[in-house]
Amino acid sequence: MGLTMVAHAAPSQEDTATDAAAIMEAAVAAPGPGPGLSVDPALLAEALACNDAGSRDGAVLLVHGTGLTASESWDQTYVPVLTADDYSVCTVRLPMRALADAQVSSEYVVYAVRELYERFGGAVDVITHSQGALEARWAVRFWPDIGDKLDDLIMLSGSNHGTIAADAICLQQLKGCTESVAQQRPGSLFLAALNNGDETPAGPDYSSIYSFTDEIVVTSALNPSPAIAGASNTAVQEICPFRPVSHIQMITDTVAYALVRDALDNEGAADPERIDRKRVCTRLVADGMTPVDALINASTYLPAGASIFLTRGMAEPALKPYALAALPAEAQAPSLRPVRSLLSSAFGLAGSR
């Protein structure tokens, strides 16, 4: 059978852009649970681990950060502490130590929230560390049913507007950096799509907890990358001035944990006014955790750093079709001049809040 060649007039660039915009607008407006999940359901199920059900309503889902596993972040910290306090606690293991495309990793969070909502019969509380905030927020933004299934979204040191560390890693690796690290560069297409418009879509109560001495998600009072519009945004130094808390240490810090529990145990987001400052400012390790737990947690810098720096050859993935609708028309690809990107990160020029 032969092939019939039919000549057509090539559409103009303006017509193509108009048609694409119409398609994206219709896709966003269409009812339904959001995009279909591209990951094998068996892999999604295998990545979810839960303890025995506690007596409290709902469940808590823990989402880890870049270069780590769920076990490394949570098994010596939040899992035993929350379990002892009768919470149903689950973890999700993001693929490739959360070094792969964050859009794909977000599907693991979508699956986990849906599964826990059905399994435990109540709204789910999500606690994230570092990059985990991006997957959780991406899930709420692009899967409409997820927000309805959440109670609290609590972020520890979330890289919500990117981090200068991602710029530095991508700069020194001449072969490129991993996909999720590239997505955490200030000005990335991923962050542009995530943060365009409403940063806190309806559904959960948002709490962002961070530190001015964070060496990974570098932040300051003038440029708090973890802070998002519409959330309760609190630096631990606002409660305990001059308190040094590093990126990994946020998981075991007393002040951070007190804010997490305040959000979990009360209506609404974390409220720093309810924190007993005299008590938390005199303690280093969170209630229920030991100094040994904190040391084990701190040791996760080694596998995290090794996995990040030894995995190369990737760049920022293209946005999924469903995310293109959220990308501002004026958005540009991340700068090809690393020094300019680094300066933008350091002085808060990468984008508005």
TrEMBL record:
<dbReference type="InterPro" id="IPR002918">
    <property type="entry name" value="Lipase_EstA/Esterase_EstB"/>
</dbReference>
<dbReference type="InterPro" id="IPR053228">
    <property type="entry name" value="Stereospecific_Lipase"/>
</dbReference>
<dbReference type="Pfam" id="PF01674">
    <property type="entry name" value="Lipase_2"/>
</dbReference>
<protein>
    <submittedName>
        <fullName>Lipase B</fullName>
    </submittedName>
</protein>
<dbReference type="InterPro" id="IPR029058">
    <property type="entry name" value="AB_hydrolase_fold"/>
</dbReference>
